[in-house]
Amino acid sequence: MAPPKNERNQVFLGSFIHSKKLDELEYLHNTAVCVDKSGKIVAVEAEHDVEKNLDTLYSKLGWDASNVDVHSTKEGQFFFPGFIDTHIHAPQYPNAGIFGKSTLLDWLNTYTFPMEASLKDLTKARRVYGRCVRKTLSHGTTTAAYYATIDVPATNLLADLCLALGQRAFVGRVCMDNPDMAPADYVDESADASLALTRESIAHIRAIDPDYALVSPVLTPRFAPSCTRDSLRQLGALAAETGLPVQTHLSENVREIELVASLFPEADGYAAVYDGFGLLTPRTILAHAVHLSEAEAGLLARRGSKVSHCPCSNSAITSGEARVRWLLDRGVGVGLGTDVSGGYSPSVLEAARLALLVSRHLAMPHQQPGVSDADRERAKLSVEEVLYLATRGGAEVVGLERRVGAFEVGMEFDAQLIGLGLVEEASAGIKENEGQEDGGEDDGNVDVFGWETWEEKVAKWVFNGDDRNTKRVWVKGRLVHTRV
Amino acid sequence: MAPPKNERNQVFLGSFIHSKKLDELEYLHNTAVCVDKSGKIVAVEAEHDVEKNLDTLYSKLGWDASNVDVHSTKEGQFFFPGFIDTHIHAPQYPNAGIFGKSTLLDWLNTYTFPMEASLKDLTKARRVYGRCVRKTLSHGTTTAAYYATIDVPATNLLADLCLALGQRAFVGRVCMDNPDMAPADYVDESADASLALTRESIAHIRAIDPDYALVSPVLTPRFAPSCTRDSLRQLGALAAETGLPVQTHLSENVREIELVASLFPEADGYAAVYDGFGLLTPRTILAHAVHLSEAEAGLLARRGSKVSHCPCSNSAITSGEARVRWLLDRGVGVGLGTDVSGGYSPSVLEAARLALLVSRHLAMPHQQPGVSDADRERAKLSVEEVLYLATRGGAEVVGLERRVGAFEVGMEFDAQLIGLGLVEEASAGIKENEGQEDGGEDDGNVDVFGWETWEEKVAKWVFNGDDRNTKRVWVKGRLVHTRV
């Protein structure tokens, strides 16, 4: 079951928008992006005169025109890099939107552990995971860093589904062997058992995708309180032995931080717990990092570990407001996570929107006494910046910054085709049936009147866009989602 | 052009969900709601055995079965009261999502005034207003309190469109006669001119809908800084003379509050400015009220004036976090406003979602030094509470609490039919085309697996729902929107 390949070379023609740097989008119009059979971008020809130059382009690439698929776009559509969800719990997908007024620790016991435990039933797991992967693809998520459950067959099934459906993924069997922090029916038996099961799942993924071309394992200690010292130590050693990425949670909630301090009194702060076991590597993804100290941010920067910012989750379960600018200023890489189902939405676009709004909450007058007006103003993230976090920032967080996140020669083609709705001139803006008029496409809630700049169109997409605007999605050059 | 009426009586059968009180939804299943030709609810028969009892019901009502339309629902669908948008600027609709990093005062000058001024062009106004009314209807907004522009013909056109498209609306010509706070081409010439134009627009609405059965004028001083004392005084007198509702802005932004203090040094606070001119009536809608003092909240409560909470706007343009619980505790009525385009979305459901999230931001640990842990916890709004604000709360704000907001005998039938997506058992949750599989309906992003309680289904709708879930919309018993 190797990852499927394309039979033909491809040329994508139209407008391409991607991040040049943190605060700058690049707009490439009348452009041709050439993608070879392996899914790699081999040419980006800006301001290309389509009619005249395709043959020249093919001969430069040594391509035979009869073996090239050409994808043109409609007016107003544009290609954007696929989104990268750096933190999502696939088994919690059915709970999206269900959390009441809970915060982290009671939310885990009330909603999360029972749902995760129930996915031992592989029929249920197939239904939930299949839906989750399809749904995130439909929102333009081309790469996802998944937490599965403690169960190996269900974890392996998630990896199989990602491979079959064509989503780039990191799939982690969840390690949790501290019986004081888990229900009796949902806990690893021991540190040794936890490690053995983790190795089993790694072996499965290596068997189905030997080069981790699409799907990779990721070591996944749930969070410090869930794991014994022995388990954390063994996982740190496994990270060193295999070079595999690591994902876990850090400093999400004030009560959780107090709990960590009581469980690991020897460590100088939450981040230091992981560091003590060799779990802060340049390939470590730390979800949340809301309440970090200066010393902890410095430690992350030195280790090269990255942060997955999850604004929907942090707002919904009242965890706090992560200081993204503050982290970036300290040299810590940041991407976005949906954190389903602490986060209510599987959409990275929603996470980008909320990242911008949360940064405004940090900029409000009463916030953080002691922070200067200028620093509060700087906390605000722009549309350009949250789109960077959703693409290149996320790529850096999952260690794929040279392979995905932009339209550059040498990168792989992970992309989404975006189409926005145009409000007609003629009929007074009045359509009989919103949505699917003329039996045609439903372009959702982004209304373009025609006078907007490209920057304004992108802002409208970020604020009112949804999966209806994501018309097609490609991973490694392979079409993995089409909206009728 | 009187408001259209239905020719026939109607029975709606199925599940009905509405607010019983602030923190409680009532679930009425197997229920029949009977609506007469005038759009009034004349019977609510809960746990109705449809087959057996319809004839009994008709004879009780004195209805002839041949003159009744029966509306049944599909499994899983439910009726919900229409949403009430207590604050929306129709002319700003094309700017939704466009605000950069601006805050109130620069946002007005950069984005808002130029767009509003341009709608003097009635062709453009028709396109924008038509789209705005259609779009808000498609999101389930059955009542909207609109700000138009200073231009009378364009304002009258908005009223005409609401009447023709069947949306219950308050339509206000914007009064702004302070030349220091407006562009030279977008300002009333004088206080007298401002009042005369306002009377013109009132006369037009009285001509098209004499009883204000569907569309009503509303006195609309933009906000204190936009108006001279003379203008505010005349508008206060007009409110007393006509008994018409009033809408304006209050205490949105810290700089704005400083500006008001400098312009009206004689008043003891922002709310007192309006009170001094007789503009705080029981029919006054005050948008935002983010930074009120105890004295101001007390003044609003004594006057019976109400607050339109606009969480999307307050977050997006960094105004602050309005303390809804604090206002309710002080006896001030609160509803929700989208505040397009300070708010980025025309959806009241999005405003409800954001109201819940903003209340979480108020509950975060570092917030508001001096507020106790218990009070912070109390600040959180539940799913039930934000849905109350979106319906009954809004009805109270616009003075329609006895006419709309719930399914009760004597109220008018303003309702939406909600349908959620059911994830199939069979195909492993994998559908080839998300969205419009089988050429059928697109149920959007709410995924129901079948094991959820009704409370959980409603929570899923609040967090992942959008206009795709609003299948049909009725105002006064008249079908005004159908999704394919």
Structure characteristics:
2 domains; 4-stranded mixed beta sheet; 484 residues; 20 strands; alpha/beta; TIM Barrel; globular
Would you give an account of this structure?
2 copies of one chain form a homodimer. Chain A is an alpha/beta fold. Chain A has 2 domains: 9-81 and 406-482, Urease, subunit C, domain 1 (Roll), CATH 2.30.40.10; 83-397, Metal-dependent hydrolases (TIM Barrel), CATH 3.20.20.140. The first copy, chain A, has 15 helices and 20 strands. Chain A has helices at 50-61, 104-118, 122-138, 152-165, 191-208, 229-242, 254-263, 270-276, 294-303, 311-316, 324-329, 348-362, 373-379, 383-397, 454-464; strands spanning 9-21, 24-35, 41-45, 68-71, 78-81, 83-89, 141-147, 168-172, 174-175, 215-217, 220-221, 246-250, 284-288, 306-309, 334-336, 415-418, 421-422, 447-448, 470-475, 478-482. In chain A, the strands form 6 sheets. The first copy, chain A, has a 4-stranded mixed beta sheet. In chain A, strands 5-16-19-20 form a 4-stranded antiparallel beta sheet, with helices on one face. The interface between A and B is large, with 77 and 77 residues. Chains A, B: Belongs to the metallo-dependent hydrolases superfamily. ATZ/TRZ family.
